[in-house]
TrEMBL record:
<feature type="domain" description="Hemerythrin-like">
    <location>
        <begin position="80"/>
        <end position="159"/>
    </location>
</feature>
<dbReference type="InterPro" id="IPR053206">
    <property type="entry name" value="Dimeric_xanthone_biosynth"/>
</dbReference>
<protein>
    <recommendedName>
        <fullName>Hemerythrin-like domain-containing protein</fullName>
    </recommendedName>
</protein>
<dbReference type="InterPro" id="IPR012312">
    <property type="entry name" value="Hemerythrin-like"/>
</dbReference>
<dbReference type="Pfam" id="PF01814">
    <property type="entry name" value="Hemerythrin"/>
</dbReference>
Amino acid sequence: MSTSTSTHSSELADTPWAPITLPSYPFLGKVNEDPAAHLAGEMSVVHNVLIRSLNAIWHNAALVSTRDTPPFVGYALLVLSAIHAHHDTEEKIMFPAFAGAGINMEENIEQHRAFHDGMEAFEKYLDQVKRNELEYDAVKTRELLKIFADPLVHHLHEE
């Protein structure tokens, strides 16, 4: 593979939403020496999986043929399922634990609310396409994705 192709592929993986970079990751110390740094590193890895998945949806949306629609929609729905699972775990387990340790989690909760409705609208659209109630539309897919992904990725970077 040529250098220009490699660079191009990397740029696609990192656009339109940039991944998270941390100066202290990978965390090479012992977890009990700096649990906060370890947790930040682990969260950045998970968040980058989500960000790169959103970028994959974005870039592939325009390439989907009629034959490719079912697997593409299935992939996008799996990404949404992973986002739901991640944030449900945070809201039910991590946020209460942090709040119990005296950390104010209200900003994180508000950021979850900021992308919730947009994510639900995107999921509803994908479900309708999956059930053949709507025809797949690349422009609409990107529009709906951007509505929720912008505030979601902002949240992932802040968290």
